[in-house]
Amino acid sequence: MNRVLILLFATISLNAGFFDSLNKTITDSAKEYINTPNNNQNRLDSTTIVAGLKEALAKGVKYASKTLGKRDGFWKNPAVKIPLPPDIQKIADYLKKAGMEQYVIDFEKSLNRAAEKAAPQTLSIFTEAISQIKIEDAKKILNGPETAATDYLKSKTYQKIYDLVYPIVKENVDKSGSVKYYNMLKKSYEKYAKPYTQNETISMLSSLIGKDQKSKSELSNFTQKDIYDYTTSKTLEGIFKMIAQEERKIRKNPLERTSDLLKKVFAAATN
Q1: What predicted TM-score, i.e. pTM, was given to this entire model?
Q2: Which range marks the domain in which residue 52 is found?
């Protein structure tokens, strides 16, 4: 019991540290704004714009982390829910008809559980990336499309973030049982569902799995590494989607501009 409590408090402290970093980003942005000459004038200088964009993105990252990093954050959110990998989706109906519906559900849910565990741990990575927004890109981002800041962040950091998030996702995929469920699904498919799909009475067989029946199943080429890659990509896709959603709200809804800096920067962008 004591060990569980120690682990719980350590996890809370770690996440608290990440949120402290984000709050510092927001505070620093506000200081930049306050210390900018003529900050009450209609014309915005690049320093003020950068500060506003940093604060907006920090707000978006915090929102994404809190929203997705809780139980069912991915699983029960249709906008970001991680679906079955394409190779499995192709034959999901047959797997269910062959009595493996629960395996299919458990596998899909385990991928989402891994993403939910990984999402909060991206905070420090994003905080560092946000701090590196360049002045020369500020006005272009501010006057760009409704997700320009998120798109910029993604274009500048995606591969780095992917590389850093991958081992986090991998660890949580393993803990969530995704590989175990997949292996059970694959074995059951080979034993039960594959013969079922080869039955001539199934009219949709040729369109779903091809006319040329070989010994390999559709699952055979989907490896353990593919599970990690797929889940990592979908985790980041969901996180960026939620950051973009928050950016849209800040741009479109004045009530979402929760500081003087956000009000000044994004009010100017809509004028």
Answers
A1: 0.76
A2: 2-34+47-270
